[in-house]
Design brief:
With about 350 residues, the chain is α/β, with parallel strands linked by helices. It contains eleven helices and eight strands. It has two domains: about 180 residues, 3-Layer(aba) Sandwich (Rossmann fold), CATH 3.40.50; about 130 residues, Rossmann fold (3-Layer(aba) Sandwich). Helices cover about 45% and strands about 15% of the residues. Strand 7, helix 10 and strand 8 form a beta-alpha-beta unit.
Length: about 350
């Protein structure tokens, strides 16, 4: 059905598009390129988010604008350049998110036909959350299911994505009804997808790793003390994964990466723990990143380069990075199942 005037409306009434449900996937974001100014714009938006850095702006912004954003775009740009998808002219996170969206869109249209519109947005950078909310509203989405692609809830990830979504809704004349997909860190189909990816990687390895390090993105330990559930949800994912694999505590552990600033963060730190494992005689390890739905700078560069280097410098020999679930079919099924569960009552 095309846009049309409502029944019994006067001839001068504006046409109204066919109503449908929007499914908006959201990920962290990516710079448009790895040059200095692209990196500065992206980092400026990211590091100005009070959910990410909650220090007083009076103290933080002068430091950010005058020092950090003068130097960090060069180092971060070099890191992005090392993993950039030159063929597509975009970061791996963008490439993977597009692939995930395409597969989910196909499954949703097979199930619901033209009653749904599926798209993705980024919290930082492009395509922006407000632009995609505006597109969906204009296309007739009277309801929007917003899906932050983070298995675990954290204020610095899920919450800030939702903040931006709510801000975007506030700009709409005809505001869509909204639902938020809850974290899926303990869903059986997500745990199964994780377990299958690890079993495949272990089966293909020449030598079975001595231990699997589940490396999650870190946050200041203060956030845990202030009520953020992220740490506990990460621990539960590792426990459920261990139980599904049938392993004991000596074969798997939880660590945290990406420490930034002077505060104490969730521990153990991945970069230090892999070195300790090597020094303790575990020369063959595997690392996975269950908190990331798609490979990105923190996995492809930080884990597969910086953390790997720490392990090898401490005497480690075999380092196996197990990719994120990305657009793996089992992962897409888990995400699609989660979406369908959250559409109940809207599209049954």
């Amino acid at each position: 059905m095309q846009a049309a005037r409502p029944e019994h409306a006067s001839a001068d009434h504006p046409v109204v598009p066919q109503q449908k449900v929007g499914i908006l996937l959201a990920n962290l974001g990516t710079p448009d390129n790895y040059d200095y100014w692209s990196m500065r714009r992206y980092l400026g938006e990211f590091l100005s988010d009070r959910r990410v850095i909650d220090y007083s702006p009076w103290l933080w912004q002068p430091l950010l604008q005058l020092i950090i954003l003068s130097k960090r775009p060069f180092t971060s740009g070099a890191a992005y350049k090392s993993i950039w998808n030159e063929e597509e002219g975009e970061s791996p996170l963008m490439t993977i998110t597009k692939a995930q969206t395409a597969k989910i869109k196909a499954m949703m249209h097979e199930r619901y036909g033209d009653n749904v519109m599926v798209d993705f947005c980024m919290r930082y950078g492009n395509p922006s959350t407000p632009s995609k909310v505006a597109e969906m509203t204009k296309a007739g989405c009277s309801k929007i299911l917003f899906f932050p692609l983070y298995p675990h809830y954290a204020g610095a990830t899920s919450a800030t994505a939702c903040d931006k979504f709510f801000q975007a809704l506030g700009k709409e004349k005809w505001q869509p009804i909204a639902r938020i997909v809850e974290p899926y860190f303990d869903r059986p189909d997500y745990i199964e997808a994780l377990a299958q990816s690890i079993e495949k990687a272990y089966a293909a390895a020449e030598k079975r790793p001595d231990i699997l390090i589940c490396s999650y993105h870190g946050v200041p330990i203060r956030y845990l003390m202030e009520g953020d559930p992220y740490h506990c949800q990460c621990q539960k994912t590792t426990r459920l994964l261990k139980e599904r694999l049938g392993w004991d505590d000596t074969q798997i552990m939880t660590t945290f990466q990406s420490k930034f600033g002077p505060e104490e963060w969730l521990q153990p730190y991945t970069v230090e723990e892999v070195a300790r494992q090597a020094e303790a005689g575990k020369k063959n390890i595997a690392v996975c990143a269950p908190a990331f739905s798609a490979d990105c700078i923190e996995t492809l560069e930080e884990i597969n380069e910086e953390i790997k280097e720490s392990f090898e410098e401490a005497g480690g020999e075999e380092f196996l990075y197990i990719p994120c679930l990305n657009d793996d079919d089992a992962h897409i099924r888990a995400l699609s199942n989660t979406i369908e569960d959250n559409l109940r009552g809207w599209l049954d």
